[in-house]
Amino acid sequence: xxxxxxxxxxxxxxxxxxxxxxxxxxxxxxxxxxxxxxxxxxxxxxxxxxxxxxxxxxxxxxxxxxxxxxxxxxxxxxxxxxxxxxxxxxxxxxxxxxxxxxxxxxxxxxxxxxxxxxxxxxxxxxxxxxxxxxxxxxxxxxxxxxxxxxxxxxxxxxxxxxxxxxxxxxxxxxxxxxxxxxxxxxxxxxxxxxxxxxxxxxxxxxxxxxxxxxxxxxxxxxxxxxxxxxxxxxxxxxxxxxxxxxxxxxxxxxxxxxxxxxxxxxxxxxxxxxxxxxxxxxxxxxxxxxxxxxxxxxxxxxxxxxxxxxxxxxxxxxxxxxxxxxxxxxxxxxxxxxxxxxxxxxxxxxxxxxxxxxxxxxxxxxxxxxxxxxxxxxxxxxxxxxxxxxxxxxxxxxxxxxxxxxxxxxxxxxxxxxxxxxxxxxxxxxxxxxxxxxxxxxxxxxxxxxxxxxxxxxxxxxxxxxxxxxxxxxx
Length: 475
What we know:
single chain; alpha/beta; UDP-N-acetylmuramoyl-L-alanine:D-glutamate ligase; Protein-Tyrosine Phosphatase, Chain A; 3 domains; nine-stranded mixed β-sheet; six-stranded mixed β-sheet; 21% strand
């Protein structure tokens, strides 16, 4: 945070100062994890399902935090006239701010800090690919502007206020990710972010367990407009069946990207070389051949979204193309390691039916004596869990892959889909130790192996083992 005092926090939250000075600066970071809190930081004591941040306030104060947001007078006497900090043995340098609800107060701080910023913000949401799209957009914008982007996965009701607090006065434009997993969440975070431009990548079935249907997911994603400023721009995937005919609210301009003739930013003549795509982008400002350093045909759509944002932000097509080249992917998202022994494609950050299929496509574009897919359960699919896993199995059956191993109970349906439509050998596992033992005896030099599954399965623990082995001379 920059140029923030305890008085600013009191103004934003309507909280009561129990100890410390209202004039004290709070110019560190907002911390939700007490273990990371230190000098100059604001610690927000959230109460969660498994832990209560209020229990760690003494440690945070001892670490030198500038301020604490709390909704309970934990360990404090109720006698009037007694300083809370002194009664707890706390040093008076840490400001203790009592609020009704720390989560809501954190969101109020996010709104307050956003109002003080003048830079334009681009908000990115979607069922699949929003993080990659965010990264490509930020890379492309960086060819001209000093660009801020969401760190890690700080895209929720508590993450977005933290993200807003990290933007500096020197930043010229920002790209922030807006995620949602429950009804009404998008409206909350969009109103905090107050974006100037909104990008929706697609409407899939991620979080369908909580939201019930794709139509409900569509309505929640479109609620990003609840925080879209007047005269803002809504940028939609024109190839998505639910988005191609969608229109922005009154006062918002709608722009489409995709491969269809109706798209304002259109990709033509798409080719792949070693898994890396090239295409010609056609738009009102001209056409240009674009090459990507990121793997996968699906990244053509992500790149189109980035081009749309760049040109709508005043950049040239040449600048956008230059910026896009700087994006090479990132850890556990189609991360490629070409070793002396074999090639590893690590896409273990998360999984949905669409991203599973895309990863299989990338696998088959890579060189290898055998193409092996190690696939784990996809989560949060609700009633469509069995159907979705079977669907991916059917797709894998026609992919040309040589060998498949699956991990987790839901993947029994994925295996069934493969067996019903092909003769591809598929082996099922319920624990990672057994899968690892099988891989140790099965993998051969020259193999190309895909690891793909939902993050909670922690398949990345297995992929890391073989990433390390890929360049070694022996097993």
